[in-house]
TrEMBL record:
It comes from the Bacteria. Residues 42-61 bind DNA. InterPro entries: Homeodomain-like_sf, HTH-type_TetR-like_transc_reg, HTH_TetR, Tet_transcr_reg_TetR-rel_C_sf, TetR_C. Pfam families: TetR_C_11, TetR_N. Transmembrane segments: none annotated. This is TetR family transcriptional regulator. GO terms for molecular function: DNA-binding transcription factor activity; transcription cis-regulatory region binding. Residues 1-10 have a biased composition (Polar residues).
Amino acid sequence: MDITQNSVSGESRGRPRSNEVHRSILDATLSLLAEHGVEKLSIEMIAQRAGVGKSSIYRRWNNKEALIVEALEQIKPEFKASAEGDLNEVLYELARNFAQQMNTPLGKQMLSLLISTISGSSQISESFWKNHSLPKTKEISSIIAQHRSTEKLSDKVNVDLVSDLLIGFVMYQLLFKPPSTDLDASLKQGIELVVNGMREPN
């Protein structure tokens, strides 16, 4: 899902149909997370903001944590991964695609919300990692592994650790560097440095 197409809505109007109820609950959860954080958020607050009864929420989710995990899934950027081509270019295109979706005022706000929510609850963090983050990380690891022979990467390279480093690098560029930073150049230089570091020494 493209983050630039998402928004956090306020209170819903009327009694929407089932799919609209589902959407209004997720939107209400995100907006309340931004306002109050994980600890202060309650099912009662979500129901009131969404304009639904608590029973409508419990029919869809067993608890608050399960609802939050699905709500956070709505603000994740679309993930496009391909193993075809030069490894530098493949990883750059992947990073650039992610950065373009998140490098907006709304995107950065949602990214900050995602991080603060996950860091505020070990249960949510564990669930989100297992069901969402880990599969995406494994996709990047698989791409790197497929280039091991063609790019002459060292057999000692831990591709999962490299994937973590790349994700952390892109997130740092988005969240902590000033807007004046040449993001495109930083991504290219950072990825080139990582790829060169994985290669067998001459």
